[in-house]
Write a structure and sequence with these properties.
Chain lengths: 303, 240
């Protein structure tokens, strides 16, 4: 039983991270029907930006004296950096192809992914980069179940980001404009909504969330690597498809399911095959219910 | 009729790729007028409105609004200047509520109080929309959607309202209602209206002047009354 609860907490942590990344895929798809294969790279770039900022503060000795400030700054800077990076990527690689076939933009996205990943490798090196480890030693024990402080932070922060996103998309005027743009771009223009600005905003939000996830993963596993975006990126994509691509709530649910399945699969079946479970789900969804859990049926939660 | 047209097209050509839909359309709309463009299916009526709004780029010629050339102005800037369109098929945002559709009509406006007041005004103008304010736009009937589309356009506070086939697919009694409202908007608010219709009889009764559009060209222009009594028009468009 303790083992089960422990895995549940681990699954929640990982699932939250996948959900954050999956949102970027699903929101961009909702607005411009593009699978942004470069999205995993925003996650990796976010992880790197986090380690750069945190290491800088650690070098100054601020980590011991002002840990909250250091963390906040690293998240804020990294998310802002990736948001602008994503806006730039969209303008360079996708916007010129918006009127072309969808395949053209898809190929451009693949190219962008390789370009960004190589850019990270060339600027940051091929070896793992370690996160400063002073933070988050220890945790709380409940009998045999241990929840580390870091897991608590990840779960709480993920929850806060997901709630914040929901409020933005479903309660604000700009969120309304995002949903309108996803539904009908011509009509949106006729009521003075600039689709270019909404598309930029969508990329920025998606990449910001992925950047936050990148720092969390960096903190959790203790290091980042230039190609770290690839596998989580595809798993988060699987999560977005599982939830129903284009559906925000779906991406959150899908991320949690993929995280849980991966952790429980690794825990109860085989750790060696942990990466396989997400893809089994992806294939099964595409085969049996391509619209995903929430696709088409509960469509009011689409972007 | 004041001297300067508020909206003018000068020899406008436009189309879709290699298909030329407009081949030199010129027309003028003066402030306070209701102008009708009548014509058969595929004559280029909707293209004319979409070209005015900048959704389709004019390849040649000029579109002038309020004396200024607007060919190169991006479409989302035009509602801010008071030029607004209710497009063909109404294009309600299907998965936004009625209220959200109205709020987006006022997307560029900052006067929150005025917006709230206008929404209430729309509900008094179209009580059915008030009853359905939390419902998704896509769940409304055709007539209700047309009312919502007009109300959404009014939320932009237009000086010139372009209406594309407001009668399309509606029951006669609803059509009469819609046209009464259009007349009201023109008379009470002084909003200039450019109306595109296949139903020539209806359009010319509501309009002060009319243009006849045939395969991308204006073939006739006259007072609405005169067009209504023109034997050729009666034969070609009024089924006599």
């Amino acid at each position: 039983m303790e083992y089960f609860i422990q895995q549940l907490i681990n699954g929640l942590t990982l699932g939250g991270v996948y959900a954050l990344i999956a949102l970027g895929y699903t929101m961009v798809y909702g607005v411009i029907q593009l699978i942004n294969f470069a999205h995993g790279e925003f996650f990796a770039a976010g992880g790197y930006m986090g380690v750069i900022v945190l290491s800088y503060f650690a070098g100054l000795g601020y980590m011991e004296t002002h840990p909250v400030f250091c963390l906040t700054a690293s998240f804020a800077l990294s998310m802002a950096f990736c948001a602008y990076l994503a806006i730039g990527v969209e303008k360079i690689a996708y916007k010129p192809l918006r009127k072309e076939s969808r395949l053209a933009a898809l190929l451009s996205a693949l190219g962008m992914s390789i370009f960004l990943s190589n850019g990270l490798m060339l600027t940051q090196g091929v070896y793992d980069k370690a996160y400063p480890s002073e933070l988050f030693q220890g945790g709380l024990s409940f009998g045999l179940v241990t929840v580390s402080y870091l897991q608590m932070l990840i779960v709480c922060l993920t929850g806060a980001l997901l709630v914040g996103l929901n409020i933005l998309v479903f309660k604000t005027k700009i969120g309304m404009a995002m949903r309108a743009t996803a539904q009908d771009k011509t009509m949106s223009a006729l009521v003075s909504i600039s689709s270019n600005r909404i598309i930029s905003l969508t990329f920025a939000i998606g990449a910001g969330l992925a950047a936050a996830a990148g720092i969390m993963v960096g903190l959790y596993y203790g290091s980042v690597r230039y190609d770290m975006g690839f596998v989580p990126g595809i798993k988060a994509f699987a999560a977005a498809v599982l939830g129903g691509i284009g559906n925000i709530t779906g991406a959150m649910v899908g991320g949690l399911i993929i995280g849980m399945v991966e952790i429980f699969g690794a825990g109860y079946l085989s750790g060696e095959y942990k990466d396989v479970f997400a893809f089994i789900i992806l294939i099964a969804v595409l085969y049996f219910k391509p619209t995903g859990i929430m696709g088409e049926n509960i469509d009011d939660t689409r972007v | 009729m004041s001297a300067e047209p508020i909206l003018e097209l000068r020899n406008v050509h436009s189309g879709y790729g290699t298909i030329k839909a407009l081949k030199g359309v010129s027309l003028k709309v003066y402030p306070g007028e209701v102008v009708a463009i009548i014509g058969a299916n595929g004559a280029g009526k909707s293209t004319t409105l979409m070209t005015i709004c900048g959704i389709i780029a004019a390849e040649k010629g000029e579109v002038l609004y309020d004396g200024k050339k607007i060919n190169k102005v991006s479409p989302e800037k035009l509602p801010i200047k008071g030029l607004c369109q209710v497009p063909e098929g109404r294009r309600i945002f299907p998965r936004l509520s009625v209220e959200e559709n109205l709020i987006l009509g006022a997307f560029h406006r900052k006067d929150q109080e005025g917006i709230n007041k206008d929404i209430e005004y729309m509900y008094s103008l179209f009580p059915i929309l008030g009853e359905r304010c939390k419902q998704h736009g896509g769940t409304l009937s055709g007539g209700e959607q047309q009312m919502l589309a007009i109300a959404r356009a009014l939320m932009t506070q237009p000086k010139v309202l372009l209406l594309d086939e407001p009668s399309l697919g509606l029951a006669p009694i609803i059509i009469q209602q819609i046209f009464d409202i259009i007349k009201d908007i023109n008379e009470k608010n002084g909003t200039t209206i450019l109306l595109v219709e296949q139903n020539a009889n209806l359009a010319l009764q509501a309009a002060t002047r009319g243009y006849v559009l045939e395969t991308g060209e204006i073939t006739l222009e006259d007072k609405a009354d005169a067009l209504l009594h023109n034997p050729e028009i009666r034969k070609a468009y009024l089924g006599e």
